[in-house]
């Protein structure tokens, strides 16, 4: 498949009630392992890619390193690749679009694109984030790519008190609809794990909804039944791998 065919195939995997499952990777080696395990598509996690290079999350990883990482993956794996691009390394719509274009150039077919102000506080106003999404969509259309913009809201991730999540649902739905109108392809609600609230958002969203696995989240089968269209694992795979590495190394060094 050429890049646009991959992009279309990736979009088609997002089906309400039959979600695409993305076990997040961070380099070409993990991409190959997950592909060999049977994945239909690949997705990086920003936290994981940054940590693998010794950086903290939050666009601390140089963008050039992230782009090169994406290139290394697409050069060895033929599956569609989505890149967790945080805030696209720019607050301005034009800058965000120009930066995403660099990922398109190395073969990526989608991004996660969040509405929190990276290295700042709070979330972008809805109209501001919508303008950023429109700019990215216009860039992709100009390149003839059915690029998948997974529009992420950080409403739930930013609120650690799960009891307050119900009060955020109406704004989340409003954001999801605005992001869809601006050219978003999917709606990502990391941090949300309450089944009833997930179901409510899935029913109201014009876009396939992406839920991130974390402690307390429903299992894959349950999420599918709630209407979810995409399930991802975020930094979980990296943390699991690093824990195993530390345990094995500690077992060896404790003998010395």
UniProtKB/TrEMBL annotation:
One of its GO terms (molecular function) is lyase activity. It holds the Pfam family PEP_mutase. This is Isocitrate lyase/phosphoenolpyruvate mutase family protein. The keyword Transmembrane helix does not apply. The keyword Cell membrane does not apply. It comes from Rhizobium anhuiense. Keywords: Lyase. InterPro entries: ICL/PEPM, Pyrv/PenolPyrv_kinase-like_dom, Pyrv_kinase-like_dom_sf. SUPFAM superfamilies: Phosphoenolpyruvate/pyruvate domain.
């Amino acid at each position: 498949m050429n890049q646009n065919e991959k992009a279309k195939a990736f979009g088609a995997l997002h089906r309400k009630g039959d979600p695409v499952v993305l076990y997040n990777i961070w380099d070409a080696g993990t991409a190959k392992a997950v592909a060999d395990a049977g994945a239909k598509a690949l997705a990086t996690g920003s936290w994981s890619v940054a940590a693998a290079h010794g950086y903290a999350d939050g666009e601390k990883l140089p963008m050039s390193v992230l782009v090169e990482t994406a290139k290394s993956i697409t050069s060895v794996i033929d599956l569609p690749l989505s890149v967790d691009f945080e805030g696209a390394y720019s607050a301005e719509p034009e800058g965000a679009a120009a930066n995403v274009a660099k990922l398109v150039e190395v073969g990526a077919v989608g991004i996660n694109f969040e509405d929190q102000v990276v290295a700042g506080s709070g979330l972008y106003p809805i109209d501001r984030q919508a303008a950023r999404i429109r700019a990215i969509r216009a860039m992709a259309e100009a390149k003839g790519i059915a690029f998948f913009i997974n529009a992420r809201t950080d409403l739930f991730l930013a609120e650690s008190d799960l009891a307050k999540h119900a009060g955020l649902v109406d704004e989340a739905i409003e954001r999801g609809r605005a992001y869809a109108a601006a050219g978003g392809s999917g709606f990502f609600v990391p941090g949300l794990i309450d089944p009833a609230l997930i179901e409510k958002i899935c029913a109201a969203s014009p876009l396939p909804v992406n839920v991130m696995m974390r402690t307390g989240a429903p299992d894959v089968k349950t999420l599918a039944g709630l209407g979810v269209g995409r399930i991802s694992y975020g930094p979980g795979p990296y943390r699991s791998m690093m824990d195993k590495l530390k345990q094995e190394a500690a077992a060896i060094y404790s003998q010395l």
